[in-house]
Amino acid sequence: MTVISIANAKGGAGKTTVALLLAMEFAQKGEKVVLFDCDPLAFAAKWHRLPGAVDAIYVVTGITFANLGGNLRAQQDQATHIIIDLSGARDALIALAAGLSDLVLIPVQGCAMDAQGAAHVLDLIGQVESNARSHINHAVVLTRVSSFVTTRALRSVKALLASRNIALLDTPIIERSAYRDMFEHGGTLYTIDEARVSNLAKAQRNMQSLALEVQRLVAAPAHPQSSGPFARMCQRAPADVPLSQKAFEHPLTPRPAQAFQLDTVHADR
Q: Considering the domain boundaries, does residue 72 fall inside one?
């Protein structure tokens, strides 16, 4: 079982889009996916109630700091993948989920507010890593990128993040009408009426590339300082042993988030 968390302290960064695209592609391959919808607005759960729901995708709501570990244990023999769609500005839950994950994805659009939300998550991850003396596998994924953005422009963004030791997925989420249609009418990118949206095949290829890269990251050799995700301990722990929230509320003495500015990416003219 792999655990993948999607986190950005700012709403509207594309967390649920990333979570659903991964869930759809994994399900298309015949793998069972459980999606923990931690957002009070429950966009993933609302999508799942629309027509065309996928049997291989199961959505769980009501996830809190207190019950996250128990829910992970309950699914460890049932799901191939657990995807945690985190809400913004819930430090303890984000920190705990990050420590329990095989991979943390941080969606970012090319705007200052998204960058600030990403910086907050990156700072939380750094604090948990320091507390645990272990590496947490994480990467930024660009979302809602214009289809006119050039490869050169994306290379520039990757170089900027690399200079700050921040990993970036090679696959950005390109803005497509198919994603909006999916949230409004239900179904997946494999069941949407092709006559209703444009560039559906391109959206499918984008989703496939994203899932493939994520699976490679999860399967990659462990970081030298990594002792494996805390999820392994969580799954082995007795169900009646609660996790302490105090350990995650303030992992270290609070400090200002690391400066992280990602300028809007434009296509070459």
A: yes
The answer to the question of residue 174 being in a domain is yes
Question: Whole-angstrom Cα distance, residue 209 to residue 7?
Answer: 20
Pair 111, 264: CB distance under 8 Å: yes
Write out the residue range of the structural domain in which residue 101 sits: 2-228
For 142, how many CA atoms within 13 A lie in the half-sphere containing its CB? 25
Cβ neighbourhood burial of 143 (10 Å; 0-12, 13-18, 19+) = buried
At 177-225, the pLDDT tens digits run 999 999 999 999 999 988 889 999 999 999 999 999 999 999 877 665 5
**How many Å apart are CA 200 and CA 179, to the nearest integer?**
9
Is residue 55 domain-resident? yes
CATH code, domain carrying 21: 3.40.50.300
Phi and psi dihedrals of 63, rounded to 5? Answer: -75, 130
Task: Count how many domains the chain has.
Answer: 1
Q: Tell whether 101 is covered by a domain.
A: yes
- Note the pLDDT tens digit of each residue in 11-64: 777 899 999 999 999 999 999 999 999 988 899 999 999 998 889 999 999 999
